[in-house]
Amino acid sequence: MSDRSVFFISDGTGITAETFGNSILAQFAIKPRHVRRPFIDTVDKAHQVVREINHVAEREGKRPIVFMTLVNEEALEIIRGCQGKVFDMIKTFVEPLETEFNMKSNHRVGRFSDVAVDREYNDRIEAINFSMEHDDGQSSRNLEMADVVLVGVSRSGKTPTSLYLAMQHGVKAANVPLIPEDFDRGFLPPMLKPFKKKCFGLTIEPHRLSEIRNERRPGSKYASLENCRYEVQQAEAMMRREGIAWLSSTHKSIEEIATTILRDVKPDRLIY
Amino acid sequence: MSDRSVFFISDGTGITAETFGNSILAQFAIKPRHVRRPFIDTVDKAHQVVREINHVAEREGKRPIVFMTLVNEEALEIIRGCQGKVFDMIKTFVEPLETEFNMKSNHRVGRFSDVAVDREYNDRIEAINFSMEHDDGQSSRNLEMADVVLVGVSRSGKTPTSLYLAMQHGVKAANVPLIPEDFDRGFLPPMLKPFKKKCFGLTIEPHRLSEIRNERRPGSKYASLENCRYEVQQAEAMMRREGIAWLSSTHKSIEEIATTILRDVKPDRLIY
Question: Which CATH code of 3.30.2310, 3.40.50, 1.10.1760, 3.90.210 fits the domain covering A116-265?
Fold first, then answer.
C-alpha cells in the first residue's frame, strides 16, 4: 500500500499534531497525502471536517488516518464518530498524567494564550530581531548581549542556525563570518576578542561548500574547490588555535546543529 | 503539587518530544523542571540517563515524568526500567498503525536522514535565504519567485512571520513595509504592483505598536501613539482599497499568523 490520506486536526495551529504525526509516519514506508485542518474550535467546524473525512474514506476505499489535538470535549466527540482511524494525541497522554499528578487537566487550547502579554513570547521575538541585526557580522553593537556567537566561513550554515536558535529557543545568536582577510592577518575578527567564550564554530566539507557557493556565484574563484579547501583549512586551524569548539554542518540539519550547540554552550536564558 | 522533573529523551534532537510534551503538560497547572537528553543512541548513554532519572526520583521523592522518542529497541528497554513514569511517544501510536497499515515500522531515527542530499531540506534553506534577502523591502529582485509577500507598517510582525514561514514550511516569504511616503502618494509601493495576488497584510493595534516602537526609539515621533494611529489607519485603508487580505498580529503568535496565511494563500510549494 502506498497512499493514505492523513488529517491533522487541531483547535490551534495544528503544528504540534503535524510535527509529531510526521515523526510517527516516518516509521512507515508510505507516502501519505496531508490534509491540514487548523482552528477547528466549534461544533459546526467539527461536523464539517467529519463530512470531509467520510467523503475521502468513501472515495479512496481506505479509512483516512486522523491525528487530532483537540481539547474541546464536544468537538472531540464529533470527530471520534468519523469513518477515519482516529488518534487522540492529547487524551492518550493526559489521562494517565491526571492519575499521576492526581489532578484534572484544564483543557487549555493551544500553546499560546495572549501573546501581547506573554513575556516568554516577547523574548523570543526580541531574540529574532537580535539575530537579524547581528547576522553576518553586521554589527558589533550589543554583542555582549548575545547568548552565543557562531563563527565560520561564508555559507557554512551560520545564518539559518542563528535564526533557528532565536525562533525555537529564544536564544540571542549572533554570527560573524571568517573571511580571507582574517586568515591573512592570522587572528579572529577583532570584534570577537572579548566574546571568545561564547563563540561556537561551524565548518563544512570543502566539496559541499563549493557546491553551495556555485549555486550563488557559478564559476567564481569564491566558489572554486581550491578556494573552499583553503578557507575551510584556515578556518579550522584558527578555531583550533583559539580554542573554539566547532562541528561540521555538512551532514547535519539545522535542528541537530542547534541542539548540539545548546547542549555544549548551555546558555542560561533557554526558553520553554 | 507544583514541581516535578520532566525528562525529554530522544535518539535525535528531542525537539518533537519536547514540543509535544509541552502541549501535554500545558494541560496541567504545574511548573515542571525540564531536563533534555538528546542523542541518546547507545546502550551506554541509555544506562547513564536511567541512573540520572533514578537519582532525581530519590532526591525529589516523586517519580519524574519521562517523555521519550526512541527507536532503538535495546535503548528503549533500558529506559523502561527506570524509576520514572515513562511515556513512549512513538510506540504508543506506531503499534496501532502497524495493524492499520498491515506493515512493520522501519525504526527510523529522527526526521532527518542525510541533509546534504535531501531535496526538501535544501529547499527549506533556500527559502530562509530568500526571506532574509527580501526582508523589509530590501530587494525587488526575483520577487516573482516569492510564494507570499507580507505587507504592513514597520514593526507589525512581518519579519518574524516571514522567517517562520521559510523555516517551518519552506515557503519563500518576502516582506515589504508600508511607510509614510506610500500613504502620502496613496499607492502601494510600486515593486508590489505585479504581485498583488501574493500579498498578505499584517496590521496591529496602535497602542501595542506604540509600545513596541518605544522600546526601539523611546519618545520618538515614530513611536508616538498619534503617529502609530495614523500609520495603521492609512495602511488598513490602503489594503482595503487594494483588495489585500489582512489580519491583526496584536493577540496572535507567529505560528497562528503563519497558519492563517497558509490556509488563505495556499502556496503550491508547501513542504513536509
Answer: 3.40.50
